[in-house]
Amino acid sequence: MPITDFSTLQTQLGVLTWPLLLCAFLALMICLERSALFLHQTLLSIWPKKQAWIKALHQSSSAATTENVSVLLAQTSAQQDLLARGATLLLKQVHQPKVLREELLSLWLNKQQRDLQAGLKVLQVIGIISPLLGLLGTVLGLIDMFAQLGQSQGPVTPAQLSAGLGLAMNTTAAGLIIAVPAITAAHLFGIWAQGQCLRAGHVLNQLNLWLAGIEDISIDSNQYQAFSKVSSKSRSSSTEQKSAFNAHTQIESQT
């Protein structure tokens, strides 16, 4: 039965049977592998106990000390999700300057993004090649049809047109069937990978600020201690400028 099915498929697709099957096989394997990674990372990220240290970090109002850094390191070392691995990397470099930790974090995030996007370029290439192979099959089918018409001495019959047109339409449909899921999966997995890295980078930057000595890093209140002094200075300077402007206006009105 499989031999009969493959013979029928080869009859419908012609010489492009193996290239189209190879594209379909590669696209399917990459999609399955990326889907398994997506499910694994998603389950790790939504597991409540896995994210307890993130909630503690967001609600932290005390500066980093050797004791609480050790506790946090023990929590993150036992986990394997993206955020926990990045946090473990930062916590192990707590004695390094903040600038060096930022450089290390940037390099690590770039590597993680490349790992999350592995195979997506191949999916995009398959999505580009498959319709072109289908178009090539269309051209070959039309060439075969016109060759048969050229050899025919009698009137043109539907049977003479069906073989060439069937090959042309079948290869075009097969190319599009492979290309549409491949391009869609490549874009969706790319968006997911970028979102994972952005979220991890945001949390790990907060952790780096906490290690640098900033006490309040709560993202709910949107009040970072690093900018509170700047905000107070800007408010005081703006108040002084307003009072000076009002005094200048009164002097001009009196004169």
From TrEMBL:
Which segments constitute the MotA/TolQ/ExbB proton channel domain? 81-194
**Which keywords label this protein?**
Cell membrane, Membrane, Protein transport, Transmembrane, Transmembrane helix, Transport
Translocase is among the record's keywords? no
Q: Which InterPro entries match?
A: ExbB/TolQ_transport, MotA_ExbB_proton_chnl
Biased segments, Polar residues type: 244-255
**Pfam families, sorted:** MotA_ExbB
Annotated compartments = Cell membrane; Membrane
Region described as Disordered: 232-255
Q: Membrane spanning segments where?
A: 12-32, 122-143, 163-189
How does the protein associate with the membrane? Multi-pass membrane protein
Its primary localisation, in coarse terms, equals membrane
Show the ranges annotated as biased composition (Low complexity). 232-243
Name the domain of life this protein comes from.
Bacteria
Q: Which family does it belong to?
A: Belongs to the exbB/tolQ family.
Q: List the protein's name.
A: MotA/TolQ/ExbB proton channel family protein
Species in which this protein is naturally found: Shewanella vaxholmensis
